[in-house]
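Section 3.1 - Work completed
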Amino acid sequence: MSTLALTGRTLSLEDVGRVSNAEAAPRVDLAPEARRAVARAREVVERAVASGKPVYGVTTGFGRLAEVAISRERLIDLQRNLIRSHSAGMGRPLPTEAVRTILLLRANALARGQSGCRVEVVLALLDLLNAGIHPVVPEAGSVGASGDLAPLAHVALALMGEGEVEVGGRTGPAADALREAGIEPLELREKEGLALINGTQATTGLGILALLRGESAVETAEVAGATTLEALMGTPEAFRPDVQDARPHPGQAVSASRLRALLRSSEIREFHRHGDPRIQDAYSLRCMPQVHGAAREALGYARRILEIEANSATDNPLIFPETGEIVSAGNFHAQLVSQALDLFCIAVADLAAISERRIERLLNPDLSGLPAFLSPEPGLRSGLMILQVTAVDLLSELRVLSHPVSVDSISTSAAQEDHVAMGLASGRKALRAVECLERVLGAELLAGAQALEFRRPLRPGEGVERAWIRVRKSVAALDEDRVLNKDLEQMFELVRTGALTLPEEKE
């Protein structure tokens, strides 16, 4: 088994993706330099406690109660009470891959050595991760400022041997799971409860999982779009390199290049190259580089934000061992992440919108020149008529999900936390949005594959042909009406798992 060593500064989003998959995850450990950094920061906290001076969250209460001094003999109780009181999430449990991501990201943030916890706290998080013990974390309970308090408190609760965890698909008491794994419950010391819950890791974790799927979905969108273009006997002229050079946005150029590669050596194109009366295609075909490229640019921005956030210290107060200072600040505020995920949802919604328009062109005989709804016998058989209806339903939901939550601040904690980011809501909707997109793309690919049946024996471009073969391994051509639900679910799985991205396709 490979090992991933956390430094607090070098975690990649691909690392996060690997660790989120419990079945294929590497073992995660703390790098030696990170151990030293964490120990140095802890020494600063212990000196502050010994001095008796007031330090937020160490020798005082929290939030609006920051002015309340806590006696030294009650400091351990302060941290334990913090975790219990803040374990106030609600709703369905987050999926296992999200919880694993949160454990990893919080450990990585603490590994920077600016949070003031002991090394044992970071190792306790990694013990859960490596043992496959996943705290039950309700999906709601954070406004994206002062950290993702409730979600992270539910994680910390499990470290203490309280609350519930999931192990191997079964849920039970954390105390039992720790005992069976030979892991001692953690007694939190000064600052450690606050260090565990004051951060953006739930928001960031959901965002990373959504982004990784979104990046794969963009690649699949180009496979779907190229398939539709071939089925409709469209022209790739708009994808020429000189056209992209005239408007040199990088994302647009990448999308155009990929479309050209997918359409290379097309027999369908050669068949209708001469004598085609159409001067240009509809926007949903002709403007794929511009629309898909815009999504690439948006996702590129979100990736940059999430990469930085995954390697940041986001709790409060922060410890600076070089100067011995403990500084109260606001790195827990998730506005940057929340806004990036709002942009992500907008890009995802528009990818689905252009895909749905291509589906319409495939199914509408007035636009396609193909049998109505791609039915072998229109009238007696309805073919793929309702496929577009399903896609439109998903698109309507996506348009709601594209509404930003990062502008919706609501004052909390007796007005001490009077501007918040609503980050966790942005993470939740990003994950749902990318699922909706994957389903719409699956529907387009199902329709595109069926439309290509009517163009046989002519073959489409090399990349499109390979995608068609992969689809046909999972879903048979529609010869007569059948229940389409299983076909659509199979297509969703192909899109979700990246089976149709064809990464080897290059111009």
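Second construct:
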Amino acid sequence: MLCVALGLALATEAAPLEREVRFAGRDGFELVGTLASPPKAVRSPAVLLLPGSGPTDRDGNQKPLLVTDLLKSIATDLANNGVASLRFDKRAAHGYAAKWPRDAKAMPRFFDWDAFVQDAEAAFGFLKTCKEVDATRLGLLGHSEGGSLVLAMVERAKVRPVKAIALLSTPGRRISDVLHSQIARSVAKLPADQGKPYLDELDRLTAEIARTGEVPAVVSPGLRGLFPAYIGPYFKGWLNLNPTEACRRFEGAALVLNGEKDIQVSATLDAPPLAKALKARAKGETVSLIVPGASHNLKPVANDSEPGFAGPPAPKALAAVRSFFVERL
């Protein structure tokens, strides 16, 4: 019993330190997150972690239907290896639902692309002030949409200093092309005369929203879930982001990482353009890795039909993120 108790005590002592934090995002909206730091009380290098699209929380989840704990797993692994991190619930997370605007006219601004970018910038600014953090050794990590937000932050050049960025499952094409690929996959089993109209409408919608920032009044039921009336300003910002151009603006170390079995952001169509643009820079190291048998959420899967949400991240993915930041911050 003494040996068991001693083992538990040692495990507890070695656990990362976590504390809940609050800070103001765009327009003063209060955001809640978790600062995870190494067990030893020293100022550590730190990384801001940004989740994927939708109502995703700080851990990378959309409970109760989608639980990945991807960002929580990354935060824990980094802290256990000397790197602190901040992750936060984005303003679209359901935990804030009571604070969302009820006025239809206010929703487009509250959920627009700039709100998410500026929230991330505010989180980075807050991270620099944390007592656990060495503000001269900072990085950014984004998963999926979060990677696009990292690139938007780089393009705006309002977050400094950033020594390293990690783009996990991040679109390397414009998001209109990624959406086209996703919808094409979903309608692939339909007869051509049924599937093609969806793709044609999608292309018309994304082109119009990119130009005007407004969702057309008429949207077919099959696409209305993707394009609610208030989402125009959000998509306009993302649709007009050129990922490869943004890559060229960053001079630090960069990691591009995708799962081989990712059916949302392609390991063959999205990762290579990012890596190519980063490698073409005059300054800055680039590391690129395709993780065999890993899903969009970097979980081990046997084939494309598995959802790839549950369980720990693929060991190669976690190790790549760990070594990248430990060695470069």
